[in-house]
């Protein structure tokens, strides 16, 4: 009897151990089932890149014709849009009716705010009798991409089609180079419609194999160097943007200025990653080419410069978004410069500085900085096999090509819109910001936006590579890793785990 | 005789069905699937969505049978799995030793006949409270306290010797993770041990005291031997929970397991790999499964021995 008990107890404890381990078993098997559709054919072709490079312009797939199963009547009456937050939805609901000739039916709904309150919103119920359905999945932990992948893989065999989806620059190429987004020319958007958009926003959404444009954006997100005018006056003797620019015009003068700031007890930049995008937007080759990882010299230059800054005490050793990083943006935050793109000025810097006012956001002014760069942005894609391409095209045209609508968005939302003509009109109209002396920083933004060139600089693995590179280098700056080479080795180990198909 | 008696056993089995159904679908099947995957060279290309719209099909994954290659590879020199295993064990020990010590002390005090602590209900609730809070919330709180600019940054950064947060050092990070685990679980352990101690016949203590035993004697010679089964249960569950350590280190190190990968736990390793290197991730899972099973069996036969109990019973009877 005692033996039996022992065996039973042993069996039960094994079961318990087993069930505790199901977290890992479950996740691997669920990722297995979600991708099962392709598994049978997988053994035939060795990798995605092989067959995709073989594709020529002649047998292009991303046309507006139907490739898979015909859609149901209900799907034809519904415009399904995949997104991760309500930003685009609110822009669309507010500005699309002003610029379209389609017949709009509005409705009222309640939006839940972060603090638990609700706001009454006017939504769009239908466009030309086609209902709008928003499929919102949070961005955290890749959830949005997972959901989008699943739905787009099903698209061919489903009679309920996705019509539109939103993407970000960090992983845009995954969708742009895969045959899941419609070529925008194919749904009736002409070169002429697109001529006022910034080139870099088109670079992000251009298929690198076929050179087709597959996504459009309503916003451009060029960045500037934001500097604290008080410290500029104290240390550099001037707070005028043109003159301050002379002190930060390239990385060598930037370092000289850092020395001067340090002598007065002021950090030149806040932390490690602030300057990262300026380098990563100016690489010669993307992180990954033909499944092979390359570390561009620009990344090395960034790492070595940041190490120099850290060792010399020219930064405050903060990380993006942490408490000390935000605190440095106060007018007396002992930090001279921050790098912000269009949205960061209104939504981050202003809040962290303490709000609007001459001695708050008004202490900050903008100058172009050492290199042009961009940070953030959202692109709209039409899904392949969409059964409402006319509405998709109309939304793209109104939201991203219509000058008047885009001018209204900039005025109403402080968004920097992707339309050179609209921005030019605003500049000519004497636009005044809340920055130092009401600086018209749109001029600088539009100059920087023109300079950004992203041809052959993006890969589908950028998000993970950027994140892991920054983390590995931070360990070196903090003195935990001995040398740059050790940090690179640690970075490569992590990449091998994250993207097992890559050659590092 | 047997045929005539009413058997209620079948009701037992019927009531157990839901558990086994759920267990088989959500635990056993994935477990077997994981075993199977661990023998495959199964790689997903995360940078591609695949296709298959035209004549050409584009695959995002490659699956090949590779025998034990994954197991050989995960223990290769350049891999971090062994390091992660030691990280996990070390962080578990840092949390477990104070946890069991404090829990034993509190449980003994609360159950002591002579101490008669007042407002026990209140204290028990307070002790248990940290366990009710989500681990992620606690980890987040510690991050915002200790990170640069956090309210405890100045108070703790002297320990690093440099102008760094203690979360930027190996032992600072490990210590914080261990401390959070201690904070979350000592209440739970206290309650378990109290239940075990209250199960001991109070006359044993009384007679020991009459015979002149000190509180220390009664603790080491009565309490500890009699709560050994529960102690070993606490040890096994805590160890298995420790091997699964994930949320606290993941949040505290922002998923990176840094500094130097010395706070990377095995499950973080699995989470990092599972979307791309499925085969290797499965092999890692199976490796932990085997380790947990071995440790569980050793502890069960080593500690959950009922020989001392029998001796006691005999002695009492005599």
Descriptive terms for the model:
heterodimer; A: 504 residues; alpha/beta; D-Maltodextrin-Binding Protein, domain 2; 2 domains; 46% helix; 15% strand; globular; B: 318 residues; mainly alpha; MetI-like fold; 14 helices; 2 strands; 3% strand; disordered C terminus
Brief overview, please?
The complex is a heterodimer of chains A (504) and B (318). Chain A has 504 residues and is of the alpha/beta class.
Can you describe what's shown?
The complex is a heterodimer of chains A (504) and B (318). Chain A has 23 helices and 14 strands. Chain A has 504 residues and is α/β, with parallel strands linked by helices. Chain A is globular. The relative contact order of chain A is 0.14. Chain B folds into two domains: 10-73, no CATH class; 78-317, Orthogonal Bundle (MetI-like fold), CATH 1.10.3720.10. Chain B contains 14 helices and two strands, in the order αββααααααααααααα. Chain B has helices at 9-37, 69-74, 81-111, 120-132, 135-146, 153-156, 170-198, 202-210, 215-226, 228-243, 247-252, 266-273, 278-303, 307-317, and strands at residues 40-44, 61-65. Chain B is globular, with a radius of gyration of 25 Å. Chain B is 67% helix and 3% strand. Classes of the chains: A alpha/beta (504), B mainly alpha (318).
């Amino acid at each position: 009897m005692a033996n039996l008990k022992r065996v039973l107890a042993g069996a039960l404890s094994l079961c318990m151990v087993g069930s505790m381990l199901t977290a890992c078993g479950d996740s691997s098997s669920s990722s297995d089932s979600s991708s099962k559709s392709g598994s049978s054919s997988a053994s035939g072709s060795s990798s995605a890149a092989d067959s995709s490079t073989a594709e020529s312009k002649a047998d292009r797939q991303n046309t507006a014709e139907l490739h898979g199963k015909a859609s149901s009547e209900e799907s034809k009456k519904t415009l399904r849009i995949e997104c991760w937050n309500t930003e685009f939805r609110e822009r669309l609901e507010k500005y699309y009716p002003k610029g379209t000739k389609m017949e709009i039916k509005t409705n009222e709904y309640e939006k839940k705010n972060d603090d638990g309150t609700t706001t009454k919103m006017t939504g769009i119920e239908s466009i030309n009798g086609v209902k709008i359905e928003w499929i919102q999945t949070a961005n955290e932990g890749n959830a949005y991409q997972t959901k989008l992948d699943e739905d787009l893989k099903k698209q061919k065999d489903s009679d309920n089609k996705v019509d539109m989806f939103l993407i970000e620059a960090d992983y845009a190429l995954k969708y742009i180079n895969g045959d899941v987004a419609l070529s925008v020319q194919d749904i009736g958007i002409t070169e002429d419609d697109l001529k006022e958009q910034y080139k870099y926003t088109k670079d992000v959404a251009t298929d690198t194999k076929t050179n087709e444009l597959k996504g459009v954006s309503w916003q451009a997100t060029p960045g500037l160097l934001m500097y604290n005018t008080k410290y500029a006056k104290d240390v550099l003797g001037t707070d005028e943007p043109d003159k301050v620019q002379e002190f930060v015009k390239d990385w060598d003068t930037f370092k000289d200025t850092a020395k001067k700031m340090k002598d007065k007890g002021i950090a030149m930049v806040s932390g490690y990653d602030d300057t990262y995008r300026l380098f990563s937007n100016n690489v010669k080759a993307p992180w990954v080419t033909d499944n092979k990882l390359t570390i561009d010299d620009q990344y090395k230059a960034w790492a070595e410069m940041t190490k120099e800054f850290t060792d010399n005490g020219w930064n405050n050793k903060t990380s993006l978004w942490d408490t000390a990083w935000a605190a440095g943006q106060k007018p007396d935050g002992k930090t001279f410069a921050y790098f912000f793109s269009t949205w960061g000025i209104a939504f981050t810097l202003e809040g962290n500085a303490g709000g609007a006012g001459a001695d708050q956001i008004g202490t900050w002014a903008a100058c172009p900085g050492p290199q042009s760069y961009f940070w953030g942005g959202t692109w709209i894609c039409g899904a392949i096999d969409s059964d409402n391409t006319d509405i998709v095209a109309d939304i793209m045209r109104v939201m991203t090509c219509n000058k008047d609508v885009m001018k209204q968005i900039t005025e109403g939302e402080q968004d920097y819109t992707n339309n050179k003509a609209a921005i030019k009109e605003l500049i000519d109209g004497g636009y005044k910001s809340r920055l130092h002396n009401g600086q018209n920083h749109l001029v600088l933004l539009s100059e920087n936006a023109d300079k950004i060139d992203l041809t052959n600089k993006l890969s589908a693995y950028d998000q993970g590579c950027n994140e892991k590179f920054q983390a590995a280098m931070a360990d070196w700056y903090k003195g935990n890793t001995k040398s740059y080479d050790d940090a690179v080795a640690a970075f490569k180990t992590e990449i091998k785990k994250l993207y097992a198909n890559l050659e590092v | 005789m047997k045929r005539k008696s009413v058997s209620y056993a079948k009701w037992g089995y019927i009531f157990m069905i839901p558990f086994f159904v759920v267990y088989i679908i959500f635990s056993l099947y994935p477990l077997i699937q994981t075993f199977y995957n661990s023998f495959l060279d199964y790689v997903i290309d995360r940078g591609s969505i695949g296709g298959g719209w035209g004549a050409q099909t584009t695959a995002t994954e490659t699956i090949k049978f590779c025998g034990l290659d994954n197991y050989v590879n995960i223990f290769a020199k350049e891999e971090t799995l062994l390091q992660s295993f030691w990280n996990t064990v070390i962080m578990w020990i840092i949390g477990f030793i104070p946890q069991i010590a404090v829990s034993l002390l509190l449980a003994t005090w609360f159950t002591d006949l002579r101490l008669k602590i007042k407002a026990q209900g209140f204290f028990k609730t307070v002790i248990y409270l940290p366990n009710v809070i989500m681990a992620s919330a606690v980890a987040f709180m510690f991050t915002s306290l200790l990170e640069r600019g956090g309210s405890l940054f100045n108070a703790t950064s002297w320990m690093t010797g440099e102008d760094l947060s203690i979360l930027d050092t190996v032992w600072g990070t490990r210590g914080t993770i261990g401390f959070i685990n201690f904070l979350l679980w000592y209440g739970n352990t206290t309650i378990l041990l109290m239940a075990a101690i209250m199960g001991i016949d109070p006359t044993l203590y009384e007679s020991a005291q009459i015979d002149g035993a000190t509180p220390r004697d009664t603790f080491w010679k009565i309490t500890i031997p009699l709560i050994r089964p529960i102690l070993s249960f606490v040890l096994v569950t805590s160890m298995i929970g420790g091997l699964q350590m994930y949320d606290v280190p993941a949040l505290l190190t922002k998923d990176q397991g840094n500094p130097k990968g010395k706070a990377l736990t095995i499950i973080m390793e699995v989470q990092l790999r599972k979307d791309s290197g499925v085969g290797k991730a499965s092999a890692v899972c199976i490796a932990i499964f085997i380790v947990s099973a071995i440790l569980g069996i050793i502890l069960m036969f080593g500690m959950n021995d009922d020989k001392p109990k029998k001796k006691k019973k005999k002695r009492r009877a005599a």
